[in-house]
Amino acid sequence: MATENPPIYMIGGSKGGVGKSFVTLALVDYLRRVDVNVALVETDTSNPDVMKAIHDEVECASCDLDDVSGWMDLVNFCDAHRDSVVVVNTAARSQAGVAHYGGTLANALDELARRLVVLWVINRQRDSLELLLKFGATFPRAVTHVVRNGYFGASEKFALYRESNLRKAIEEQGQSLDFPDLADRVADELRSQRLSIRKAAETMHIGERAELLRWRALFSTMFAKVTPVSRSHG
Ligand SMILES: Nc1ncnc2c1ncn2[C@@H]1O[C@H](COP(=O)(O)OP(=O)(O)OP(=O)(O)O)[C@@H](O)[C@H]1O
Ligand SMILES: [Mg+2]
Hints:
The chain has 10 helices and 7 strands. With about 230 residues, it is an alpha/beta fold. It has one domain: Rossmann fold (3-Layer(aba) Sandwich), CATH 3.40.50.300. Helix 4 crosses helix 5. The longest helix is centred in the C-terminal third of the chain and has 19 residues. The model has no long low-confidence stretch (mean pLDDT about 95).
């Protein structure tokens, strides 16, 4: 690759409620704070929660990955925002669409001069891992990191993953990461008010804000491990 444009981060996990949207919100917040241009692709068309929280602050597009035209839109969006990291929030149901049409994106990566980095969010159940194996077949050249969501328990409770061959395969090319747990009442406020983390850090009451900032410091340390800060200019 001659010139490398900023990567595409795809936040996957396939399953509903594993924390994909929370990880996406956190990654967007982190990248903005380290001065990286960022643009969002929201693929959860029935519940575009991340887009609703950040559309005032970040360039966003909505793409339906159940449909091949959604994948073309995604590729075009990546081309149109070549100075930005593109963060893709995936929906629980996009498994079939990924298998059918994901090759459209995979084939365009060289021409886009972008790397695809997958952050695969898991809970403690087996299907989180099985779904990753299927997903990985579509994007063999992606760098894939697994994100244990601390909402489901401390890192050592992810025993299935720890004992799996999948973990070894992941750690040969990527990392196993721990996404911190945020106090429920702060998480609930973020979600119900549809706040970006930046907005929440300005507007929440002092106690909630203190908890939010604790969480932000932890997830920032996590993302720093997988996001080389390479500003494209400046
Ligand atoms: N690390 C966390 N700390 C606190 N709460 C969390 C965390 N992760 C997830 N949650 C809770 O779980 C809920 C579901 O998370 P989220 O919406 O991010 O999942 P999702 O994978 O995007 O779900 P869907 O497939 O429905 O889009 C959140 O609204 C929040 O209440
Ligand atoms: Mg979601």
